[in-house]
Design goal:
single chain; 388 residues; alpha+beta; BirA Bifunctional Protein, domain 2; nine-stranded mixed sheet; three-stranded antiparallel sheet
């Protein structure tokens, strides 16, 4: 059996305590009372799903095993993808459906238990996107309070608005992905711009130079053929087709490696916007007018969502919006949010989630499905008692 790290190691995950289980049950009951059906997907999941979504960077955080046929499996590191897969396999696939869950998730963390208790909810198929966004965040925060959480500081972002703004700056797609991924991982914009030109040894290779002028389908077929000749079917859980796509992305970086000074300044102005949602909306509209950016539709959705959040009684004046906040998972397509201990700005998120309309297609569906979800990490919830 292959495992990374060993599932049966002496420091293997410890089960959640009774207090955490009770807190999680209170949160789950709130979701069920709101009309969500409980769904508990298997603990063992195909590792390729998470590697495909998050890349090889996540491998070191997965508890990996192989089954008798050699297929790589893992203990589920979160619920979103497994719940989505279960939804797609159900009679409700493509229709409105909503689920809640409570159980352990597993992530290797140095010096800490690898098992965490997570509850949450996922909503599929709703056409009233902004109302659904507001409902999911409100229910998650209410559940956290019922689970005994103290004050939480809420941070929100908008991946759709982010992508719309960078596209309006006429930024090549490869740079849009690079900047979004870098910001989500905490890298400064200057670092991303300085190191993103694709000038490494691989990008200078003759293969990539040849791919620059080829059409995408033909170039991808060429790379897949080369891998097949070499006897390479998969590398690190990635298929030959996925490896080929990565080669093509690097080839694109060679011919689209420059971000002009005016584009850089526009990006800096956009990313500098950080305020409460109402103030942020005014600043975003002023930037769009000044720079003649076509952001009207994305900003209208932003304002509608804020209206629905306020209608649910949430204190939006205490929320913080940041233009560069997109979360560290590239399947998010719209509203994103996190909530941390209000007394500790360095704390890990206790609540987090967002909209991921494209995930169903990535998992095998024929088309995108509107989807929004939130997770609550029970052990991260701050105690309600007064803090010094």
């Amino acid at each position: 059996m292959n495992s990374t790290p060993p599932v049966a190691a002496p420091d293997s995950p410890a089960p959640p305590g009774a207090a955490a289980l009770l807190a999680g049950a209170r949160a789950l009951d709130h979701f069920l009372a709101a009309g969500f059906a409980r769904l508990e997907p298997p603990v063992l999941q195909p590792a390729s799903v998470f590697l495909d979504m998050s890349g090889e960077d996540i491998r070191g955080r997965l508890y990996l095993v192989s089954d008798a046929s050699g297929v790589e499996l893992c203990l589920r590191p979160d619920y979103t993808a497994p719940v989505c897969l279960a939804y797609l396999a159900s009679p409700e696939a493509g229709k409105p459906a909503q689920y809640a869950y409570l159980g352990p998730v597993f992530r290797a963390r140095p010096g800490q238990s690898g098992e965490m208790l997570q509850t949450g909810l996922e909503s599929y198929g709703r056409a009233d996107v902004e109302a659904a966004d507001a409902e999911i965040l409100a229910l998650a925060l209410e559940a956290a309070e019922l689970a005994g959480a103290g004050p939480l500081k809420v941070k929100i972002g908008d991946a759709k608005l982010f992508d719309s703004a960078l596209s309006a700056f006429r930024l090549p797609d490869v740079w849009l992905r690079r900047i979004r991924r870098g910001l989500a991982r905490g890298r400064a914009l200057e670092t991303i711009l300085a190191n993103g030109g694709g000038q490494g040894a691989l990008s200078q290779s003759g293969v990539l130079a040849a791919l620059e002028s080829a059409d995408h389908a033909g170039a991808k077929a060429l790379v897949e053929d080369l891998l097949a000749i070499a006897g390479i079917a998969t590398v690190g859980g990635r298929s030959a087709g996925e490896i080929a796509d990565r080669f093509l992305e690097q080839a694109a970086q060679r011919s689209q490696s420059h971000v002009g000074s005016e584009q850089q300044e526009a990006i800096r102005r956009f990313l500098a916007i950080a305020a409460d949602p109402d103030s942020a909306s005014r600043q975003l509209r002023a930037l769009a007018d000044d720079a003649k950016l076509d952001l009207g539709a994305a900003l209208d959705c932003f304002d509608q969502r804020i209206g629905f959040l306020a209608a649910r009684g949430l204190p939006i004046e205490t929320f913080s919006y940041a233009a560069g906040f997109v979360r560290d998972l590239d399947y998010y397509t719209g509203f994103v949010f996190e909530a941390i201990d209000a007394a500790d700005p360095t704390a890990r998120p206790a609540v987090g989630g967002g909209r991921y309309d494209g995930l169903a297609r990535r998992l095998g569906a024929a088309a995108d499905v509107p989807a929004i979800g939130a997770a609550v990490w029970i052990e991260r919830l701050p105690a309600r008692e007064a803090r010094p």
